[in-house]
Amino acid sequence: MESALEALLTALTDGAAGSVGQDVARELAPYLASAGATGPRSVPQSLRSQLRTLLSTDRDAARAVAAAMEKRWPGSSAGYVSGDHIDFEGLFLGDVAGSVLHQHFHGVPAPADPVPTVVGSLPPATPSFTGRKKLLKQLEGFLRPPSPGPPPPGTVTATVLAGMAGVGKTALATEAAHAANDKGWFPGGVLFIDLHGHDHTTITAEQALGTLLEDLGTPTEHLTTEEQRVKHYRNQLARRPERVLIFADNAASPEQVRPLLPADARHRILITSRTAIPQLNALHLPLGQLPPKVAVALLDQVLRLADGMDHRITVEAAASTELAVLCGHLPLALQIAAAQLVWDPRKPVAEAVAELRDQRTRLTYLDDGERSVRAAFGLSYQRLTAEQAKLLRLLAEAPGPETGVEVLRALLGCTPPPAVLMALERAYLVDRGSSRTQWRLHDLVRVFAAHITADDPSCVAEREAARERVLEHYLTRADAADNHLRGSGALGCFKNLDEALTWLDRERLGLLAAVEWGEVARHTVRALDLALCLTEYLRRRGLFEEIVTVSILAQGFAARSGDRLREATAWHNLGDALQGAGRPAQAVEAFGRARDLHRARDDRAGEATQWNNLAIAESHLGRLDSAVAAFVQARDLRRLTGDRHGEAMTWNNLAIVLDEAGRKEEALQAFTGAAELLAELGDRTRAAETYRNLGKALESAGRNKEADEAYARALAIVRSTP
């Protein structure tokens, strides 16, 4: 009996039953060493139960132990191996109740060295997989077999591919796993399990271990705890002679995948997750959206796989680029959009683009019956707490592509809790922007969250209150910045002009987007004020088309509000921007509308200004007679209102146009009248300039003596200027 006990202890110590058996051997050794004095019955019941569980539930371990015993001491296991079963009862368990251990292995006449089953459950690769070259290279380095010899300390055995729903984590991991498998890097096989971490059928670690153990050929009906399954799972991997790759898809938490990590440094595990899992001491590879060219290439690849002669993506290059943008360069959305085109081979790409442009129906289009962007995002959303979900919804209402702390505070009505923001970031629902204090959402996540809000009246009320706070915040700061630009009024929250311009530059896109909220009656007045505050800044930056956009909105807001003065101001700003953008014909119409509104208000000064603007636009169109008539109207109105300086300037403008029209005498009279009036008013700079213009006109008419006199007057004025 002693030789059998020694054989058992040696077999366990040498690892015949893996690391679990070695743990048991260490605990058994003191008791078996004293077997001569007290007998093996001194072994505690808990230790007997542990060994009983190991040898009764792990068929391969039982075989390996018996084989190792026989190999070490031939005949030591003869009494325990008989025909189709192995019976370890008599070794030291004695007559303890429930100690009969029979492992039946039909067709196995005698123990032999175990031959592990080669497993292979890898899902098929995606034929249209495109791009991700850098990440594939990193995964290749991770999966490559190590150099001969013991693995170096600190060998990383796990990699986590993390990213938002639909970003292509599973496809990338599958591609890398197939490539490694095809190279023979995992002769022990590949184990695949979908953990369903983000749906209603989430698999626990214990359940996952059960599945993996079954795949490894180990029954689990007697392994009723996670601890037991972890030990047997790692024991199985440690005893396999060849490398094994485990692919754990759709993990949700470190607790779900930590028990699946192999203890043996030869093996590797690939994990995909929509949540960052930094707690595993694993290689962490975050996935983002595809680069634009790769996204278009993916569309082309899908269509050509279905029909090698389908060239729609390359033929409609511009539309295809926009289609990829509308899909957010997200692989799932791109695959669905491409599938819709495959289903309708006569459909132009431009038609698909037109269907996707409307944000209200975009997610409906990105659903092919089997795959759905809305459903994919919904699984991530349902895991959020109420506080996290609210912040995501409100972030989706942020007007700009990036949102800073100030706007976030306005959206929420309080300082955003850092922990909540971090939770959304770890879930890949929000991302850092151009700095660590700026946040952004993927375009399709923004669309998804907006849909959530639109479908719930309480969320709509929450949204409108948030927009009101943001408009108030923007208006306060934009008004202060505008005062700096115009050099008037209180300077407010900015120390100087540079600080005001820096803020305007950073928030420009958000400010412009917030103006659009004025379409809702609740926000019309604030949005109108904001639009008018932005005009000078946009003019200074030369952004005339953006002035056109906000001025059209402002004109509509003012008209609905019945504010004729601000409506006229908006038309004026529009005309001025159209003029700056080189669109004088449209500027004429805008200035005409502004003129009519001022006339209706009996505002002669305002009407005169618009006549002057109208005349300038007409002159740019080459319609000089119309320009002259408009300048005359402006001059007369300014004279009527007592605006003598304005009258003088209009005289000057009129003189220039008359000269261009070939009406020389009239031009000379106008130049003279303007110069004299400006000199009388003390505007020496403009008076000198006008006398020079008069001199040029006289010179071109051949009246050189009079021209010299005009030039002399100009010089005298300049010299007399302090």
UniProtKB/TrEMBL annotation:
This protein's record includes keyword Lipoprotein: no
Keywords from the named record: TPR repeat
TPR repeat coordinates: 688-721
One Pfam family per UniProt: TPR_10
Ranges annotated as spanning the membrane: none
Designated name of the protein: AfsR-like transcriptional regulator TcrA
Organism expressing this protein natively: Streptomyces shaanxiensis
